[in-house]
Amino acid sequence: xxLENFIKETLVQISKGVSAANEQLTLKRKKEDxxxxxxxxxxxxxxxxxxxxxxxFDVAITIKSAENGSGGVKVRxxxxxxxxxxxxxxxxxxxxxxxxxxxINQWHG
Length: 109
Prior knowledge:
With 109 residues, the chain is of the alpha+beta class. The chain has one domain (3-102). The protein contains one helix and three strands; from the N terminus they run H-E-E-E. It has one helix at residues 3-25; strands spanning 55-68, 73-78, 88-102. A three-stranded antiparallel sheet has the order 2-1-3, with no helix packed on it. A hairpin with a 4-residue loop joins strand 1 and strand 2. The radius of gyration is 21 Å and the shape is elongated.
């Protein structure tokens, strides 16, 4: 998976997960008079990690070059990479870490 899709899918799944959790609990979260209680889970606006705001990423990027039996060199940029089978004659792997935060623009839940 490339970095762009990893970030996109992570943010979409977090958003959908928070909404789905609140939706599933809606029927159980009612006062005695039948009115709904406030949503249990919220993503607050902002990006201040200390205050629990934003979505914070700490990603390891692996760049791997390998010479295989076919004589070619393969370079791959991936967030998570697994290779099954095959035989490598020689390889080189470089790992870089990036950290960043995504600001949440409005309350979500």
